[in-house]
Each structure stands twice: as C-alpha cells, then as structure tokens.
Design goal:
alpha/beta; binds zinc ion; 13 strands; about 350 residues; 14 helices; TIM Barrel
C-alpha cells in the first residue's frame, strides 16, 4: 500500500506578535484559554483556531486517526497577505517559512512544506524563492489573485519562470473570492460556494495566458479539485475550436492536464468526474486540515472514489518535485491496522 500524503493542510504559528508599527492589516495570533487562539487582523478576530494549527504532536495523532502518513504544511491562506506593503509581506513570509521549517524538523518523515513569498512584489518574491528552496520546501502557496492582479498577468511571469527553474511548485488557493456580492448572503458562503468558482477564474486566467504552455515544467496545484474548472473545460474546448483561443495553442482541456488537483470534493462521483476530465496522474490527496471544512479520512475517500491507491503517493511526489522517505504513521498505529495485517498473514 502506498503512503497517504495529504498535500493540502494549513498551519498558523502560535506566536505571531502584533506589530503596531506595521500596516493595520498585519495579522497576529492571540492565545486564549487552553489550546485556543484567535487570528487577529485589523483589530478584529479573523478566525478562531486551536493548537492543531501549530502543535506537531496533535497533528501526528490526528494523522493516525485520519489514515494519513505525511502532511504537506502550508500557510493558512489569509496569512498570504497579498495586500500588505512589500516590506511587511516579506517579513511575514520569513516568519511563516521558518515556522513551517521548524515543524518539519520535528518529524521530517511525516511533514513536507509549501512556503510563501511576497508575491505582490515580484522581484522580491523571486529572491525569496531562493530561501524557500534552501529550506527544502516543495514550493509556494499563492492566492487565486495577487491583491487583484490576475494569475495570468505578465507581471507574474518572472515568478513562474523562477519557480520552474528552481523545481518549485505553485499551490493556488482561493483567497478573497470574486462574486460574493452576487450571492448577497453571509460571507460564510465564501469558503463553501464561492471558493470553487474563484479557483476556476484563476485557472482560466492561467490557461488563457498560456502559462502552462510557456512553462511546461512548472507544477501548479489547484485547490479543491480545481473547483468549477473541470465542468467548464468542454465549453472552453468548444470555444477554442471556434477560434476563441486567447494565447492557447492547444485545447484548454489538454493544458488543464498539466495542472495538479487535490481530492477535496467530498463526493466520490465528483472526484470520478474530475479524474475523467483530467486523468488520474496529477490527482493528489488533500484535506484542508485542520479547518472545519476539512475532508476527513482523505486517503480512504480517494481510494474508494477512484478504486486506485498506489498512484497517490507517486502523484504527490510528482507535485513535491522529489520522493520523500515517509514513516508509515497511520497504518502502524491505527487500531485496526493489526487485524488487517494479521488477516493478510493468514491468507
Ligand atoms: Zn485550504
């Protein structure tokens, strides 16, 4: 059996001090009672969190329960802070990257890392990529837009070029999505209903700008199964055949197979649909741990939905850019693992 590698998990440092001299949107973490904390942004509680966001031991024990052997750690998306002044964003990225590196160091055979850079200042971001690389991370996380700049914008080309050259992947996560005003309902719908639409917008931006064709070795991971992208690819293909091509030299559905997709779709039929649309070789297990929206038992879900298992670890290594030694955590420690092994030994 292949290792279960959860490519989509988030962290928040337990110590992220308020910095009154910095921008008012500088995020901080206020520890409250017990293992709880609040992420503060602009003087307000952005999100209540708990120690699972930073505590390695808690994560490891949850991974046993979740059947996960390795988590890939990435920043809580709001902390990407693409709206901060560049000095603040660069400083914050250093803090976040150091935190992720420290967590990995506690259990290097059970964690890998995706860091962040000051994406709103591309020359700085390109320089920071070198630090990300030196920490041994697999890549960086960015939002679905950089404070309003579309991901297909020419401004971002040097970032993609540098990431490709350094063998670093790009994890695209929905952030401050477009369209909330069309729903006219609670902003809580952002994470459930609007994130998948936002991811589709960002991926269409990348496709239309020909990013996959210009950077054929660049690895781009789309959150939440690519959101709505798989559903609109046939329509985009038809448009392409009619001459609506943007900078695409090949059908969008073909370019879309160059992206990577996590399995956070909750419904086996939806995951099968994704696999039919883009193939299985770029599908990687993900959960969104530790947040409420997370998909539990992500490895078991992916296996049940697609009827395959062994490919997922290799797919994950493919996105991570290298193989990892993975200490088999879940199956060694799970209560029912012994009976599975025992029945195998007998049979
Ligand atoms: Zn996420």
């Amino acid at each position: 059996m292949g290792a279960v590698i959860d490519i989509h998990t988030h962290i928040v440092p337990s110590r992220l001090a308020a910095e009154p001299s910095r921008d008012r949107r500088w995020p901080s973490v206020e520890l409250t009672a017990g293992d709880n904390a609040a992420v503060m942004i602009g003087g307000k509680v952005f999100r209540k969190i708990d120690a699972r966001s930073w505590d390695v031991d808690k994560r490891l024990s949850d991974m046993v329960e979740d059947g996960t052997d390795m988590q890939v750690l990435s920043p809580m998306p709001e902390l990407l802070s693409h709206w901060l002044p560049a000095d603040d964003a660069e400083f914050l990225a250093d803090i976040m990257n150091d935190e992720i590196a420290a967590m990995i160091a506690r259990a290097p055979d059970n964690f890998a890392g995706i860091g962040m850079v000051c994406a709103q200042d591309v020359p700085r971001a390109v320089r920071q990529l070198q630090k990300v690389k030196s920490l041994g991370f697999a890549g960086i996380e960015i939002g679905t837009h950089i404070n309003g700049t579309a991901l297909g914008s020419d401004v971002l080309l040097p970032l993609y070029e540098a990431a490709e050259a350094l063998n670093l992947g790009i994890f695209v996560h929905p952030l401050h999505p477009a369209g909330l005003e069309r729903i006219g309902a609670s902003p809580e719908f952002a994470a459930t209903a609007v994130f998948p639409l936002e991811t589709a917008l960002a991926s269409v931006s990348l496709l239309a700008a020909g990013i996959t064709e210009r950077f054929p070795r660049l690895r781009v991971l789309l959150s939440h199964g690519g959101g709505a992208l798989p559903w609109i690819l046939p329509r985009m293909d038809y448009g392409w055949s009619l001459g609506l091509k943007g900078q695409m030299t090949q059908p969008p559905s073909k370019s879309a197979r160059q992206f990577w997709y996590d399995t956070i779709l909750y419904d086996p039929a939806s995951l099968s649909f994704l696999a039919n649309a883009v193939g299985t070789d770029h599908i990687v297990v993900g959960s969104d741990y530790p947040f409420a929206i997370r998909q539990k038992q992500p490895g078991a879900f992916a296996k049940a939905a697609l009827g395959i298992e062994a490919v997922f670890a290799n797919n994950a290594f493919g996105f991570l850019g290298r193989t990892h030694n993975v200490k088999p955590l879940a199956r060694l420690s799970a209560p029912n693992a012994v009976s599975v092994q025992g029945s195998r030994a007998r049979g």
